[in-house]
User: Fold these one by one.
Assistant:
Number 1:
Amino acid sequence: MSLRHLLIIKQARSFRELAAPFFWTILCLAFGTGMVCFPAIVFTAAKRGLQTWWEIVLPSLLPFFIISELLMNLGFVSLLGRILEPVMKPLFNLPGCSGFILGVSYLSGSPLCAILTARLRRADLCTKDEGERLVAFTSNASPLFMLGAVSVGMFGNPTLGPFIALIHYVSNLLCGFFLKLFVKAKPYKREIKKNRSSLNCSIMDVFKGDSHLKGSSFGSLLGETVRNASTTLLTIGGFITLFSVLIEIIQATGIFPLILKLLVPFARMSNIDASLVRSLLYGFFEMTIGINEVSKSSGSLLQQLIIIEAILAWNGLSIHAQVAGMMLGTDLSIFPYLSTRILQVPLAVLLTYLFFPLLSQQHIATATYPLASGPVWYALMLTLCVIFAILLILILSLVVCFVGKCIFEYCRKKIFIIH
């Protein structure tokens, strides 16, 4: 390789290193300017975000955070890993200890699964590939959120909760099977400790080898667990509040209405209520706020359920940021998780359309929304519109990044010429 090529590579790396902080600095300055220009909106949005965290997230996640971390510290997860190894390996090509996280995903959901997976990775109980696939299809929504907050609190119809949860869980589980079939795992040999090398070793040996009670009491372990869980939940509350404020600032600056004007014609072509497009935009950023907007829309019940499942499958940028934050300190990448979210959206939409006729009139008797559906192509058109909306927002984000990099490069050249 010539010296010129080396200089070009060095300049490209230098540009990337400078472009990223410059781009994020511009975004933060724009965000701060919006907070100064719209103080009343910021206060209301922050209050709403904190209320969502206090009433929904805190009571649904805190007990699971404490119990799951206690079970890991007591050595139960290692024991469960040995028991579930013959099941998890053929189903998902994952180690047995991931079965605990899979179970937790149906009891609590994200971002707890990302936290537990990161702990497994730090303890070298799973490989990088296994950890990324595990996070990708275990980031479910909380059952308390779907059964309580969505069906009862937002729709006033508790019978819709099991249907929403079933579609969400099945579509995510299908993603896990697809990842096992189409993603080739790298061969990896785990080192097995001597006291666990034999299948005949006693349960006491397993607890003795992995328990954190050595040299400390259960009370101190419990106190440390509660402190860690509280700190994590405060972090999650910060993410929810931040994205709640971000959504309202984007709405106040007129960016949302501009995107709506681009998407409404496609919605009308598919006979989709325009208010659902607005809900989808909200859900792109924050799941709870988006689903709450769906419950206030005037679309048919089928349309509302499809948009809800699409938002639940996508998780929202707020959950994405939480998952990425919880995986810090490990070599796990966020991209398999994001790819799986895009894969789950059409799966969830199609499953909702296919299983909607199974809802009896007794299940939807309390619903005050029109129940009209459409022909077979209707679900396909609705799926394409949902995917198109997500891809359009992602493309707009990439365009903004590209423009920011071009401006930065132009300014850097000007400064270089001046000097």
Number 2:
Amino acid sequence: MITHIPAGLGVLEAVFIALLQHQLATSEILAALIGYRALYFLFPLVLACLVYLFLERWGSRRKGSGYD
């Protein structure tokens, strides 16, 4: 199940922890990575949903206005 997650959950985290463990605490690195994943995957999803809802509403208004 974990391998089906984009970017392979665990691989990116392991690389960042290995490279940055001497400069930052592991908890700080993981918090930054969780934030990164939230922005990288959830922000586009929310944006796409808003655009979809806008287009649906705009389409329903055009349909009812007689411009078909």
Number 3:
Amino acid sequence: MTDIEKRKFLEDLGQHHCTTHYYKYLGIVLTDGVKFLCETAGCWWLADIVASLQFEEKVRKEQFQVYTLTVNPDQSALVKVDDGNGNIVYYQEIEYTDFPLDKIVLWNIDKILILPTEY
């Protein structure tokens, strides 16, 4: 993404303050904002991680899950999952990603994956 495209993407992403539709996806539900994120940034793999982690007991038992993707300068990344109180319940290193932002945070509340601005 060029800098102009990235600014437009961030502006459009910031417009998601609630959702009007819910989308079933691999056993979880996505909001309009998360669907936009996945489609525009090509990061369906991030939604896949969230969906697959619902089979991990340590993650699944948390009704409120905070997913933080942090992209490093070398394009490697780290996905951390915490319980909303900063207690890490899972992390996964990503060898390479072309995700366009340095960081994104998603919330999974009772298997509904949302942008924090949609709460």
Number 4:
Amino acid sequence: MKQRRVTHLRYLMTIYELGQVMPEVGAAAVARTLNVSCPSVTRMLGVLMGKGLVVRERYGKIYLTDSGFLLARGFQEKVCTLQRLIPAMDLCLTQEELLETACLLAAALPQHVLEKAGK
């Protein structure tokens, strides 16, 4: 799995999660959550808009398209499943490391593996 794809999914998941708790998502909130710069968010939003996964309104509000929403929600579900399963491996990960590991695995593992493991 290319690192770029994982990064795309992390941004989508972040926008999805922020949208669950705030009425309007902006680049600054995404930057704070991911601990990246606003110019980095702007560049990534351009990439995600080019893929038809997000829409950015004139005043900076960010929305997921239907396909972006489905991709982000599915990725979040995979990440949550893995965050529940990985600790059994006794890897002594911090919460940040656990999230990063779960994201990497969620992007790389086929869906059927997670369906079987999540039961």
